[in-house]
């Protein structure tokens, strides 16, 4: 038997070997239905709570993934995995391509435009997810040039100004001659659909944005649409997140005065308050010595996860912590990759992009914010930024065209400038996040958090110490809002672990 997964992990592919039988499925729940026991994999729970997710494992015992860019061959001799594609970033010592900036911009525009044009092929109308960000706006602008009729756009809106992009998206829809459909989301909606969303995601949440995407795809289906464009993948290949800009400041080519470096870091953090603890480090971190020994630097997204891990470690049950006292989640992750072949000799920013594309991209972004939430309502998401020709072009591109100073996705910004509003062209990346539940203590989502973590559901989990969690809940009213932001994803992880256990009746691992 031959089975393959796409290059980037847009679509899931799970397998299990049990009683000399190979089972393959697109969801873990299908394997449970086929007889694989629904049990936690304690090692992978610890890995998920403290470090990067692995491309070939899941939270469940005996349930494995075919990694992105791999195919599986099964015969009487056993099951083997083979890599058929990978991100091949240019070496730091390789001479620059002779193309000048304008030629790179034109090449990128042509590649992305062709990726959009190809993905307009359908027997049904193609809609477009639209935020107030650069990625979905660029896709909409290019698609509008090729479409025979106005494109219908779907935009999530929130009732908290720092997280709502409705007005900016509506302006972009008008610029593209598109139809604008806002989908308002309240915390009550997130609470009502938490269990359904996590049942489709089959993994842990760090924010309510996955539930919001679940509701967005439902609205698309209810509007009669089966296919939508989405901008997912752009940040992971173009360096869109704040932590990639931090890498560019700290590890980019050339020499920078320490005072200037600190000034840029301070500016980056001040301009991204919603990213603290999610995309930028916030507070003490668990040790990352093994990463430094292996790579010669520590990617900022590793640091960010390590600061959240330090917070989670303080909530773990003592016996669970002791069980994995010697576990280094970053060493475990790096040991599963081809470090000499794909990382050594590359620029630190490209290494950081590569590592993110092996963990966060397939395990979270393309799952919780992508295919799982779309297919929950039989909606097909199409991702032009993850056309392999676009990505292969970006792998050869000079770093200064991805991040220039504090400007992220520079080449995309310039390539799409003629089709963007001035607001979006000049706006920095704003991550797609639902408002933190801890900032809304009178809303149903926070009530769900309190009821679940103070009740028998958390008590039944072997991973957390309920007394420590309750002590944290008791401290929340006395914390400033700025501290709620980094603690919110930690509590969301604990809550989603409880809901996941209940949904699948997961046994101990």
Task: Tell me the CATH superfamily of the domain at 2-83.
Answer: Aminohydrolase, N-terminal nucleophile (Ntn) domain
CATH class of the domain at 2-83: Alpha Beta
* CATH architectural name of the domain at 2-83: 4-Layer Sandwich
The tally of strands reads 13
The biggest sheet amounts to: 5 strands, parallel
CATH topology label of the domain at 2-83: Glutamine Phosphoribosylpyrophosphate, subunit 1, domain 1
Assembly annotation: single chain
User: Strand order, biggest sheet?
Assistant: 9-8-7-10-11
Task: Supply the number of helical segments.
Answer: 25
Radius of gyration: 22 Å
Mean pLDDT: 95
Termini, distance in Å? Answer: 30 Å
Q: Tell me what portion of residues adopts beta-strand conformation.
A: 5-15%
Q: Classify the helix fraction into a percent range.
A: 40-55%
Low-confidence stretches: none
**What is the general shape?**
globular
What structural category arises from helix and sheet content? alpha/beta
Task: Tell me briefly what this model is.
The protein is an alpha/beta fold and about 500 residues long. About 50% of the residues lie in helices and about 10% in strands. It has helices spanning about 30-35, 40-50, 100-120, 135-145, 165-175, 185-190, 195-200, 210-220, 235-240, 240-250, 260-270, 290-295, 300-315, 320-325, 330-335, 340, 350-360, 360-375, 390-395, 410-415, 420-425, 445-455, 455-460, 465-475, 480-505; strands at about 1-5, 15-20, 20-25, 65, 70-75, 80-85, 125-130, 150-160, 180-185, 225-230, 380, 405, 405-410.
